[in-house]
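Much of our argument rests on the idea that a fold can be written as discrete symbols. In the encoding step, the backbone of a single protein was reduced to a row of integers, each denoting a local shape. We regard such an encoding as a compact summary of how the chain folds. The record that follows shows the chain in one-letter code together with its fold in token form:
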Amino acid sequence: MNLIIPLQDGNLLPTQHDQRVIQSWKREEVIVKPYDPKRDRSSQQNRYYWSVVLGTIAAETAHTPEEIHEWAKAWFLPRTFITMKGREYEVGKSTTSLSTEEFSRYVEQIKAWAGSELSISIPDPS
């Protein structure tokens, strides 16, 4: 379970609910990590991406949204490499690690490609 607890002047400000949840945990350690809601891709962006952008392309191409998603990641996201024992391997980048701005650019690239290469007009989120 994840809790998002506000931070003010370096101090955590858990609600009473947060405190009850934390007290119910039977663990010795808890991981705390920074979270910036402006940075992470929004659930609204995610819904638009899967239902409208990928859904529209999938309907026109007879591919699944998942297939279009995997292709788009490989085509539009920067390649990432790791080295293990002196050998370099390519690893796929996840869209979940993109900021809201990066994700917006990614979606716009897909929409532009769909328009120019497939003559598919994808409606804007509004």
Summary: The chain has a mean pLDDT of 88. The first helix runs from residue 16 to 24. Residues 48 and 101 are 15 Å apart (CA to CA).
